[in-house]
Every structure is written in C-alpha cells, then in structure tokens.
Amino acid sequence: MKPFDAPLAPPAGVRALAVSQRRGAELRETQDWVAEEVPVALEYNGLSHAVMLATPADLEDFALGFSFTEDLVDSPSDVRDIEVVEGELGITVRLEIASSCFVRLKERRRSLAGRTGCGLCGAESLPQAVRRPPVLQSAACFDAIAVRLAMEALRERQPLHAASGASHAAAFADCSGALRVVREDVGRHNALDKLAGAMLRERRDASSGFVAVTSRASYEMAGKTARLGAPLLAAVSGVTALAVEVSEEAGLCLAGFARGDSLNLYAHPQRIRHGK
User: Taking Cα atoms as reference points, which of 132, 110, 130 lies closest to residue 52?
Assistant: First the structure.
C-alpha cells in the first residue's frame, strides 16, 4: 500500500481516504490518496453518444481528443463548443459539432458503456470494431536514445500516479526526446485521448515527434496515435498482434517494452536509428 504523503497542492483527480495500513506486523489507521474514477458522458448536439469512466481532469481535452481519434470529427474546427457540466451521478460533456459530422455520427451511432480497460465496447459491427487509420505521410526517424530519454522523463511527469499509484500517462515528445505535452487518466485510452485533445487545442504538429505511453499498446492505442499523425508509438509494456498489423498498414513504428536501453520494434523498425 502506498504511504500517505500529503502534497501541499494535490493534483486534480485524487481524493484522500481513510485506510488500514499494514507494515510487517504493524497495523495502523492512516490516510491515502486514491485516484477518482467517475462516469463521463459525451453528448453531441444534444445526443448522448458515449459514457466512459475517467479521471475528472482535462475533460475538454478528453472530449476533443476522443472526438478526433474516434473519427467523429475531421478537425478541431468541427467542434464549435465544449461545455463541462457536473451532476450528482457524474459529469456530462456537451459538444456542439458541425452538422456534417453530426449526420455521420448518427449514421454510425453506437452505445459505449466504457470501462478503464475497455477497447471495443458497444461496436455494432465488425467494420466498426476494427477501423483502419490513415497511412502516415511523415518520413521522420528517431534516435533510440530519444525514446529512452522520453520514457525516463515521463516517470517524473505523473503527479496523479505519484499521489495514487493508479493511473496511466501519455506524452508527446519531440525528436530529441523532450516531453512537450503530458496527460494522465485512470484509463490508458483516456490518457491518450486527453493528449490528442491537448495537442489539437495547442495546434501542435505530431508528425515530427512521437507518443510515449505507460501501458501496453493495443490496437486502439496504435490507431489513435496514427490518427493523430505521430509516426512512432513507444510503450513501456507489450503490444498486441492487431496493434502490429494496424501499425504496419499505417506506417507507424511500434515499440514495446521501452525500458532503459532496451526496446522491441514490432513494426517499421527503420524509423529508429541505433547509435553506439
């Protein structure tokens, strides 16, 4: 059990709770920070579309990123307004999107009952379940040391995880491995969507950098990265076979077990330069 060290300003998305803590033969009553996990409903032009369990922080980034990486909108300009409304049972994020995107949404409408580890909840058909992202146009390559530096820096850029030990992070790094944007959430997909939304809001070009995540790399993680336009996804854990397949098709370099000087390259290894 993680010890309770109360920060002066705890990060958004954590709560202090009483716990019974055991250390060897000693049992004591103390407090611990725990990550918050709340239902977040996404409404488009008044139509409820998805309910996810997420950390209640950076929700405008989450809504924009989810809308883009799930191909509900074509660009940030298609999202005219975002309003976050708190309620007794959870949080509703209301989005106003372009009419052409709303028509498309209604045509492929699905009901998502999201869970933090969820991938394809509510898909109504096989084509919906496995969508292919666009082929990347970036010719960017990266030094292996840049991946190592990004993963090392990411460990120090997770205040939610430092407080609770119960969250994932997704980061965008430039070609040198310097982290430019980091987002956290109890769900790995949510963290990546928050990152995507933050980058879209800041109008950052993803084609010259890469995404680093503190989780495994699933099909959806690879697809969302390619949709964002980043040519490399580096994950601290393993990858799935479908993620490899999608990465090969999209031109995405997929790296797993990126820890220290080690990493496994599963797709488009030519994007990594190996120095001495």
Answer: 110
Q: Tell me which residue of 223, 235, 181, 186 sits closest to 205, measured CA to CA.
A: 181
Give the CA count within 13 Å in the CB-facing half-sphere of 148.
Answer: 10
Residue 204: left if φ>0, alpha if ψ -120 to 50, beta else—which one? Answer: beta
Domain boundaries, the chain: 36-276
**Given 101, 118, 141, 253, the catalytic residue:** 118
How many Å apart are CA 84 and CA 145, to the nearest integer?
40
Backbone φ and ψ of 254, nearest 5°: -115, 115
Helix residue ranges, H only, the chain: 59-69, 99-107, 126-129, 144-155, 159-164, 188-201, 219-228, 241-250
SS3 272: strand
Place of tokens 């990126």: 258
Enter the CATH code of domain 36-276: 3.40.140.10
Among the listed residues 31, 13, 272, the one whose alpha carbon sits nearest the alpha carbon of residue 159: 13
Amino acid at 263: L
Among residues 41, 35, 33, the alpha carbon closest in space to that of 59 is found at: 41
Q: What is the pLDDT of residues 17-56, one digit of tens each?
A: 999 998 888 999 988 999 999 999 999 999 999 999 999 9
Q: Is 141 a catalytic residue?
A: no
Contact 204, 181 (CB under 8 A): yes
Distance, CA of 52 to CA of 270 (rounded, Å): 36
Residue range 105-130, pLDDT digits in tens: 988 775 444 444 444 544 555 556 67
Over range 131-141, report the average pLDDT.
92
Rounded distance, CA 193 to CA 59, Å?
Answer: 10
Taking the CA atoms of residue 82, residue 134, residue 170 and residue 115 in that order, the dihedral angle to the nearest 10 degrees is 70
Is residue 172 within 8 Å of residue 65, measured between CB atoms? Answer: no
